[in-house]
Amino acid sequence: MSARIIDGVGHARRLRADLSTDIAEFLARTGVQPKLTVILVGTDAASRLYVANKARACRDVGMQSVTIELPASCTLPELLSVIDAANEDTTVHGILVQLPLPAHLPVRAVLERISVAKDVDGFHMYNVGGLVVGSTVFSPCTPFGVQKLLEAEQIPIAGQNVVVVGASNIVGKPTALMLMQKDATVCICHAKTRDLAQFTIAADILVVAAGRPNLILAPMVKTGAVVIDVGINRLPDGRIVGDVDFESVRLKASHITPVPGGVGPMTITMLLHNTLVAARASVDEAQGTKAPQ
Ligand SMILES: Nc1nc(=O)c2c([nH]1)NC[C@@H]1CN(c3ccc(C(=O)N[C@@H](CCC(=O)O)C(=O)O)cc3)C=[N+]21
């Protein structure tokens, strides 16, 4: 068997074309252009690149984006006052604080400052908690992108055995909750899991977000499984690889995402989606057509 390679770039392109149409229609109808504010603290090269990619993606679909760059020495009160200003600015619909933050800044305090209605990353505790009860304002972009990829590939989720490898707050845990909400039987493995293979071999859908190259080898994968690789690792030779040994696992899986070109492009797409949803909600609220969130 050779797996179908899930084309994240193609799925993302189709979704972004739809978003462009929706944004143009929304602008024509309301006069409001959706706007994302990205806050970048420090000068980490990878973060700068990601932020530049997000800004370009916004422009490509007709959204405004503003990047606010703060020095790595920025204090917590300084960062919070920048967030407060974006919260109060009615022309801003989405706010994203690029992670990771410099070590002296407390991540939770920063994320909890973002208005829930503008938390397009879905990282605010209110949105995280919403995943537990199945009613979130914004779903986090990477798990949301994984779910969209599965839907676009018409892969059934209900009743499937889903194994998530990696228990991070931004990928593993929310992915598990979102797929459980879709009636999957979900298991979460992490760095302390004993005998990882005994769990992964049972997976109909294996989602890997551990940040370790070659963590998942072919003998750990069930024949015909759907393998979603969320890992992004830069090797010493500069190559970007996921957490899955792509060349061996593709011979055993039914579907597999490549890295790059799999989940990554969907993450930014769902950020754009969430920003449009935020802009719509803000117009609805201003017109009193919906209860404020
Ligand atoms: N507040 C916050 N929100 C985030 O969503 C967030 C963040 N901080 N910090 C960093 C991570 C990482 N992340 C990626 C998004 C897109 C790709 C992506 O498009 N990757 C491409 C290109 C990969 C490459 O060549 O570098 C691909 O996989 O094909 C990757 C990684 C969002 N993150």
TrEMBL record:
Q: Where is the Tetrahydrofolate dehydrogenase/cyclohydrolase NAD(P)-binding domain?
A: 140-281
Q: Does the keyword ATP-binding apply?
A: no
The species this protein belongs to is Steroidobacter flavus
Taxonomy, top ranks, is: Bacteria, Pseudomonadati, Pseudomonadota, Gammaproteobacteria, Steroidobacterales
Report the EC code(s) recorded for this entry: 1.5.1.5, 3.5.4.9
Signal sequence interval, chain numbering: none
Q: What gene name does this entry carry? A: folD
Q: Its biological function?
A: Catalyzes the oxidation of 5,10-methylenetetrahydrofolate to 5,10-methenyltetrahydrofolate and then the hydrolysis of 5,10-methenyltetrahydrofolate to 10-formyltetrahydrofolate.
What protein is this chain from? Bifunctional protein FolD
Looking up HAMAP family in the UniProt record yields: THF_DHG_CYH
